[in-house]
Design a protein that fits this description.
Helix content is 32%, strand content 10%. The protein has 282 residues and is an alpha/beta fold. Strands 2-1-3-4-5 form a five-stranded parallel beta sheet. Strand 3, helix 3 and strand 4 form a beta-alpha-beta unit. The chain starts with 14 loop residues before the first strand and ends in a 26-residue tail after the last helix.
């Protein structure tokens, strides 16, 4: 616990920094949406570096760094290494930082081809052929999942660290949250391809509460950091989509290969030994 205790004897308040890589800034906006709680946070820590919120950017070292965004350019590789060296606790926030994000779809294709098609002068573009989570490049201490992150979970994690408690977020499936809130199961009642059975809780079951299928914005269930728990049975759900909903392989792959496409077990969907999924013929 010593490594994650922000209440160690030190000079002044713990220093907090927020950094961004390839992302939409949605997770940083979730920090700002703490509103009055953000003022309380400012009393407990010194927000030393947060370009989204202030032009007063102070150099490290930092007690805790929140990192949004995936590693997508050669420059990112050097920057994340420097941030790790300057931060006692490093927390990745959001789907991009924890799993490569939506842009990780390029990991399944030819990124150079995309660059040639989109840009008039592709020779000016400097990017990696992959979009990868921060944890593939440096040691990460804690993770906050979601697209975007849930501000309640963010507040809880920071409160735990300030109290000297190891943060522990739920990794159970969204189905449990739906049942607690008495939402009608859209998979059973409406026959929609809902990823709730294999997606971790945390979003508040927003989509099922509105009668829509979950699309997995909080990533695979039962994969709490450091990814050493039993994986969600995504393959079984994919087979159910094929046999009960009569979805073809491409439809199923697109359903899983979205925001958390690079995270196991979602990325293995469709990669059967024979290259095919079973399909129900009516």
């Amino acid at each position: 616990m010593a490594d994650s205790d922000l209440n160690k004897p030190q000079t002044g308040k713990p220093r907090l920094a927020v950094f961004k890589f390839a992302s939409c800034d949605g997770c940083q906006l979730s920090i700002l949406s703490l509103e009055e709680d953000l003022l309380i946070l400012d009393q407990a820590v010194d927000i030393a570096y947060f370009p989204e919120a202030s032009s007063n950017m102070q150099e490290g070292p930092y007690d805790v760094a929140l990192v949004e965004g995936s590693i997508s350019t050669p420059e990112h590789l050097h920057q994340i290494a420097e941030i790790r060296d300057q931060s006692r606790i490093l927390i990745t926030i959001g789907a991009c930082a924890t799993a490569g994000g939506l842009q990780a779809l390029r990991n399944f294709a030819d990124a150079d081809h995309f660059t040639e098609v989109v840009y008039t002068h592709p020779e000016y573009i400097e990017s990696l052929s992959t979009s990868t989570p921060v944890s593939e490049h440096v040691k990460v201490d804690f993770e906050l999942w979601g697209c975007p992150i849930d501000k309640v979970q963010l507040r809880q994690m920071l409160s735990d660290l300030l109290a000297g408690v190891a943060p522990k977020l739920p990794g159970s499936s969204l189905c449990q949250e739906c049942k607690r809130e008495a939402h009608t199961c859209v998979l059973v009642a409406k026959g929609e391809p809902c990823l709730g059975p294999v997606t971790r809780t945390g979003c508040g079951a927003i989509c099922p509460s509105m009668g829509r299928a979950c699309y997995g914005c909080f990533g695979p269930a039962d994969l709490s950091f450091p990814h050493d728990r039993e994986q969600a049975n995504a393959a079984s759900l994919a087979e159910r989509f094929a046999t009960e909903l009569n979805m073809d392989e491409d439809e199923i792959r697109r359903r899983f290969h979205l925001i958390y496409s690079y995270m196991s077990p979602f990325r293995e969907i469709g990669d059967k030994p024979d290259g095919k999924m079973e399909k129900h013929d009516e």
